[in-house]
Amino acid sequence: MSSHDDILEPDDPAGGGAPVAGEPVEPALRAASQVDPRLLAATRRQGCFVTFEGIEGSGKTTQIARLAECLDEAGEPVLVTREPGGSPLGRRLRSLLLGGEIARIDPMAELLLYVADRAQHLRDLVEPTLATGTHVLCDRFLDATLAYQGFARGLDLTLIRTLHTTPPLDRRPHRTILLDLDPELGLERARRRNGELGLDATEGRFEREALAFHRRVRDGYLALADAEPFRFRIVAAEGSPDDVAARIADLLSDLFPGLDGEDGS
């Protein structure tokens, strides 16, 4: 597979008003002043690839489901997927990466498992789906690897990016929604959810990390968003699901005109 012509390069990070890592942000802070014409040209040729990122407990899964429902009602074909676990191989890797079967995974081994999951996911599902004109909404993608394994675990960011320069790993999202939340609140939400759903043993490895780890993840995400303001939209994840969904719909209405006027209900 050849390299993608429609991949967007990182934006010039220059310019004021960017959030400071670790500081709270206003609701739906990252509203671009204009739409990148390369983005509109790309989405006319294929489906749109939108990724959702954020710390544990930020509400990504809830908001992806709500957005998919709105797009479906607007007549837009859409597929929801996730990483890790978006392919048969990925589901096996997910149990290793998020479960408690292995007490400690070396950071480099952890990185390469995520890269393996992503390569298979892109080849099996994401690329074929986009090629049909169907939009793909993905719960975590490359930015999660940079935030968790790079900023939080301390692995070299250049190494991680270099691993993602060869097809199919050179795919980049057309838009990334970053749900921003105080790590202490997010961790409390996530641990409570896992306890209520009985997911501690199968999905709770990262929730067992110290609060300092999750603060580094959040700081990493904000740094990534600051570097690519055209692609990222930062959304405050506090408030009711309806309020958050309305913020997201507003920030995606340039890609999906059918969302214009959505109130999140």
Briefly say what this structure is.
With 265 residues, the protein is α/β, with parallel strands linked by helices.
Tell me the layout of helices and strands.
Elements: H1 37-45, E1 49-54, H2 60-73, E2 78-82, H3 88-98, H4 107-131, E3 135-139, H5 142-152, H6 157-163, E4 175-180, H7 183-197, H8 200-203, H9 211-227, E5 232-236, H10 241-252
Parallel strand pairs: 1-3, 1-4, 2-3, 4-5
How would you describe what is shown here?
The protein is α/β, with parallel strands linked by helices and 265 residues long. The protein has one domain (37-253): Rossmann fold (3-Layer(aba) Sandwich), CATH 3.40.50. The protein contains ten helices and five strands. The chain has helices at residues 37-45, 60-73, 88-98, 107-131, 142-152, 157-163, 183-197, 200-203, 211-227, 241-252, and strands at 49-54, 78-82, 135-139, 175-180, 232-236. Strands 2-3-1-4-5 form a five-stranded parallel β-sheet, sandwiched between helices. The chain is globular, with a radius of gyration of 17 Å. The protein starts with 36 loop residues before the first helix and ends in a 13-residue tail after the last helix.
Indicate the mean pLDDT.
83
Q: How would you spell out the order of helices and strands?
A: HEHEHHEHHEHHHEH
Count of helix runs: 10
Strand portion: 5-15%
| Protein structure class | alpha/beta
The oligomerization state is: single chain
- Placed side by side, the strands forming the largest sheet appear as 2-3-1-4-5
The CATH architecture can be given as 3-Layer(aba) Sandwich
Model regions low in confidence, pLDDT < 50 over at least 5 residues: 1-34
Q: What radius of gyration results from the CA coordinates?
A: 17 Å
The CATH C-level name is: Alpha Beta
